């Protein structure tokens, strides 16, 4: 199938009630590993890049990596810009070829957020791309964006009005979820997901996937969370895998970078494949 739109991936997932892993990558190795997991599991996958990753690597290099790694791929994949409050970066990535963006204007008043989101949706449409919207900050800091302050939630009516008026293709609500590692078991407002889906029919993005239980994932996916974000778990796996290999290399005094790359690739691929299994997207490629 190859590269497809975000909307095609999430609409199918919500219709058939499975979740698609939306995994933040940090470099070429992690991008290759996540895509390898998609092929291995015959699963659709959303590869996500943070603003920090775009700025550190560069959109041209990142997109060249994406084009090279997805050439001839036979499972549905999409490239998404995660949590971006910067309109210039959104414009740059859409022009470069990203399939979708999350315009994160959650720090703005809802009315201004809505006004700008309408503009972003119109801009994305000119490129055949799609938009995820957000009006409530997800608690926690991710790649320098966000706050550890508890998120303020808007009313259900405000959220519904935003979704219907803005034209967003995916909506990311605050339901008690958080970025990073949970310090305690989260209490999730799962009914809010059901209410939003019932009122709008728009797929929901579940942020803060690292640390939730399989039961929580299954319940929220059944309610309409078609896109399930994972970032912290990949970073932890990537860095601890490097650390473990390098400690052993130091002990043995054997320094072979290709062996390190293979070791870390195997661990990151296993992580991504495990999420496809957990979210029910394994075998769902078309």
TrEMBL record:
GO function terms (MF aspect): aldehyde-lyase activity; zinc ion binding
Record-annotated active site: 82
CC cofactor note: Binds 2 Zn(2+) ions per subunit. One is catalytic and the other provides a structural contribution.
Cofactor: Zn(2+)
Annotated binding of dihydroxyacetone phosphate, by residue: 180, 208-210, 229-232
Record has Amino-acid biosynthesis as a keyword: no
Pfam families named in the record: F_bP_aldolase (PF01116)
Residues where Zn(2+) 2 binds: 104, 134
GO process terms (BP): carbohydrate metabolic process
SUPFAM superfamilies referenced in this protein's UniProt entry, alphabetically: Aldolase (SSF51569)
Keyword flag Metal-binding: yes
Residues where Zn(2+) 1 binds: 83, 179, 207
InterPro entries: Aldolase_TIM, Class_II_FBP_aldolase, FBA_II
UniProt keyword terms in alphabetical order: Metal-binding, Zinc
Cross-referenced PANTHER family: D-TAGATOSE-1,6-BISPHOSPHATE ALDOLASE (PTHR30304), D-TAGATOSE-1,6-BISPHOSPHATE ALDOLASE SUBUNIT GATY-RELATED (PTHR30304:SF0)
Name of this protein: Fructose-bisphosphate aldolase
Originating species: Catellatospora methionotrophica
């Amino acid at each position: 199938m190859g590269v497809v739109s975000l909307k095609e991936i999430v609409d199918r997932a919500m219709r058939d009630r499975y979740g698609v892993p939306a995994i933040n990558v940090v470099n070429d190795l992690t991008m290759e590993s996540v895509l390898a997991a998609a092929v291995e599991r015959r699963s659709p996958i959303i590869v996500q890049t943070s603003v920090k990753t775009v700025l550190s690597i560069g959109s041209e290099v990142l997109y060249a990596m994406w084009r090279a790694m997805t050439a001839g791929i036979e499972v549905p994949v999409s490239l998404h810009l995660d949590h971006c409050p910067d309109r210039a970066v959104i414009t740059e990535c859409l022009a470069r070829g990203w399939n979708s963006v999350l315009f994160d204007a959650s720090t703005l008043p809802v009315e201004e957020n809505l006004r700008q989101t309408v503009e972003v949706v119109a801009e994305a449409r000119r490129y055949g791309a799609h938009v995820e919207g957000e009006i409530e900050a997800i608690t926690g800091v991710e790649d320098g964006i966000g706050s550890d302050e508890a998120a303020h939630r808007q009313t259900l009516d405000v959220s519904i009005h935003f979704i219907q008026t803005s034209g967003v293709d995916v909506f990311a609500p605050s339901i008690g979820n958080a970025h990073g590692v949970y310090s305690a078991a989260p209490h999730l407002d799962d009914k809010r997901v059901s209410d939003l889906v019932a009122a709008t029919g728009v797929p929901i993005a579940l942020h803060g996937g690292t640390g939730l239980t399989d039961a929580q994932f299954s319940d929220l996916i059944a309610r309409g969370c078609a896109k399930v974000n994972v970032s912290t778990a990949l970073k932890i796996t990537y860095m601890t895998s490097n650390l473990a290999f390098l400690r052993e290399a130091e002990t043995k005094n054997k320094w072979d970078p290709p062996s390190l790359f293979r070791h870390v690739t195997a661990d990151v691929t296993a992580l991504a494949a495990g999420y496809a299994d957990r979210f029910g997207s394994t075998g769902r490629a078309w």
